[in-house]
Specification:
Layout: E1 8-16, E2 22-32, E3 38-40, H1 52-70, E4 78-84, H2 85-89, H3 98-106, E5 113-118, H4 124-136, E6 140-146, H5 152-159, E7 163-166, H6 168-174, H7 178-193, E8 197-201, H8 206-215, E9 219-221, H9 239-277, H10 284-287, H11 292-295, E10 297-304, E11 313-317, E12 320-324, H12 336-346, E13 354-355, E14 359-360, E15 367-374, E16 379-386
Parallel strand pairs: 2-4, 4-5, 5-6, 6-7, 7-8, 8-9
Antiparallel strand pairs: 1-2, 1-9, 2-3, 10-11, 10-16, 11-12, 13-15, 14-15, 15-16
Helix pairs in contact: 1-3, 4-5, 6-7, 8-9
C-alpha cells in the first residue's frame, strides 16, 4: 500500500492586508484519486491504515518536494510548512530535525521558512525545546488552527509563536457575529498583545475579509484569492482586489463610527443634564419626558468615593423609570472605569466621562457599556447604556 501512494505539494498564497502583495505560501499535501483528479492528502496523516513510520515518510516526501520547488522561487516571500505536534512528540532525539537538513541541502535562507505547528497532542516541554531549536536556526514558528482543540493557550505559553492562524471553522462562525465573533476578537487581541502576527485562513468572501480586517488581522488566506495550486503566482496579482476591499472597509467603518459618535454625544449630553438634575431632589416621572429612548440608556445609579453603591438602580424600560434597590451596598471600585475616573481626578483631570469596555449585562443579557462621571465631592454617577455589535 505504501508504494502506491504518491504525494506532492500544492501552494496556497498568503496575502498582506497592508501591501496587497503575496507574502508567502502554505505548502499543502495533495494526491491523485482513482479518476486522476487532484485531491487533498491531509487525511492520510491521521489514517489508522498507515503506521507512524509510513506517515512520517509521506510527510517528509511532500516537504522535500515543496522546499525543492520553493528553492527555485526568486521572490522574497516565505514558505509555511506544516509539522504535526504529534510527530514532534515522537522524536527520539531533539537534535534530529530533518527539515533543517533539507534547508541546508537546498541552500534555502532559513528566515524565509515558517514552521506551522498543527494539532495539539504534544508534550509542552518537548514542543518548547523543538521550537527553541527551530528559532535558534533562524526559522519562525506559527501556531495553526488557533481556537480549536482544548489546549491552545497552553501551546501559546509554551512556544510564544511568531504567527497565529485563526481556526478556519471558528473564523467562519465568527464572521456571522454572536459569541464566536467575540471569541475571535479576543484571540486576535491576545495575539497582538503577545507580539504575534495574525493570519485568518479560509477567507472565501468579501464579508469574511472585511470581518478579518475588523479583527485586526495582518494577513489573509483562502479561496477569495486562490485555492492551493501547483505553481507560484505573481506577487502583485491581488493588489487591486485588496485595495478595493480596504477602501470598502474604510468607508463602511467611518460611516459606522460617525453614527456611534453621534449616539454617544446624545448619551453624554443626557448624562451631563442628568448630573445637573441629580444635584437636588429629582422626579423620575419628569425624567421620562427626556429623549432617553434615543440614547440607549438602560439604568443609572450612584456610588460613594469608595465605590459602594448608595442608591437603587434607576432602570429605564418602555419610556418609564423603575427603581430596583437590590444592588445597594455593592462595591464597584474594582471596575476599571471606576478607578480610572479616580486616577484621572488625582492628576487634576476632572469632569471627564470615563467609559468601560463592552460587556454583556447579567440582568438583561444585552451588550452594554458603563459611563462614569463625577456628580459632586461625595458621589459618582454611573450610567449603563446598550451598545451595538460593532
Amino acid at each position: 500500500m505504501e508504494e502506491k501512494l504518491h504525494l506532492f505539494p500544492y501552494f496556497q498564497p498568503i496575502i498582506s492586508v497592508a501591501s496587497g502583495r503575496i507574502v508567502g505560501y502554505e505548502a499543502q499535501a495533495r494526491q491523485l484519486d482513482i479518476n486522476n483528479r487532484v485531491i487533498s492528502a491531509g487525511h492520510l496523516f491521521s489514517s489508522p491504515k498507515l503506521d507512524a513510520r509510513q506517515r512520517t515518510e509521506l510527510d517528509r516526501q511532500v516537504r522535500w518536494q515543496a522546499l525543492q520547488k520553493f528553492s527555485e522561487l526568486k521572490d522574497s516571500c516565505y514558505l509555511a510548512i506544516n509539522i504535526s505536534a504529534a510527530w514532534i512528540d515522537n522524536l527520539r532525539q531533539l537534535n534530529a530535525l530533518p527539515t533543517l537538513r533539507m534547508l541546508d541541502e537546498l541552500n534555502i535562507d532559513r528566515q524565509r521558512v515558517i514552521v506551522e505547528i498543527t494539532d495539539d497532542h504534544a508534550n509542552p516541554g518537548k514542543l518548547r525545546e523543538i521550537v527553541k531549536r527551530y528559532r535558534k536556526q533562524g526559522l519562525r514558528v506559527a501556531l495553526d488552527d488557533f481556537g480549536s482543540g482544548s489546549s491552545q493557550l497552553e501551546r501559546v505559553m509554551a512556544i510564544h509563536p511568531d504567527i497565529i492562524k485563526i481556526d478556519m471553522q471558528l473564523f467562519k462562525k465568527a464572521s456571522k457575529g454572536g459569541i464566536a465573533g467575540d471569541i475571535v476578537h479576543m484571540l486576535t487581541r491576545l495575539g497582538k498583545r503577545t507580539g504575534c502576527q495574525i493570519i485568518c485562513e479560509g477567507v472565501e468572501s468579501d464579508a469574511e475579509f472585511l470581518f478579518g480586517l475588523s479583527c485586526g488581522a495582518q494577513f489573509m488566506q483562502g479561496y477569495l484569492f486562490s485555492a492551493a495550486e501547483a505553481e507560484f503566482k505573481a506577487p502583485t496579482l491581488y493588489e487591486q482586489h485588496i485595495s478595493s476591499l480596504r477602501n470598502k472597509f474604510f468607508k463602511n467603518t467611518v460611516s459606522k463610527v460617525q453614527k456611534n459618535i453621534c449616539a454617544i454625544n446624545i448619551t453624554k449630553a443626557l448624562i451631563y443634564r442628568l448630573k445637573d438634575v441629580l444635584q437636588t431632589d429629582f422626579n423620575l416621572n419628569e425624567l421620562a419626558k427626556w429623549n432617553f429612548s434615543q440614547s440607549n440608556i438602560v439604568r443609572f445609579y450612584l456610588c460613594d468615593n469608595a465605590g459602594r453603591q448608595i442608591s437603587p438602580n434607576f432602570n429605564f424600560n418602555e419610556n418609564q423609570w423603575f427603581t430596583d434597590p437590590r444592588k445597594i451596598g455593592f462595591n464597584w471600585s474594582w471596575r476599571p472605569y471606576f478607578f480610572q475616573l479616580v486616577a484621572l481626578e488625582s492628576l487634576g483631570d476632572c469632569g471627564r466621562i470615563v467609559t468601560s469596555e463592552r460587556y454583556h449585562d447579567f440582568d438583561t443579557g444585552l451588550l452594554c457599556k458603563t459611563f462614569a462621571l463625577r456628580l459632586d465631592a461625595e458621589r459618582i454617577l454611573l450610567t449603563d447604556i446598550i451598545v451595538g455589535d460593532n
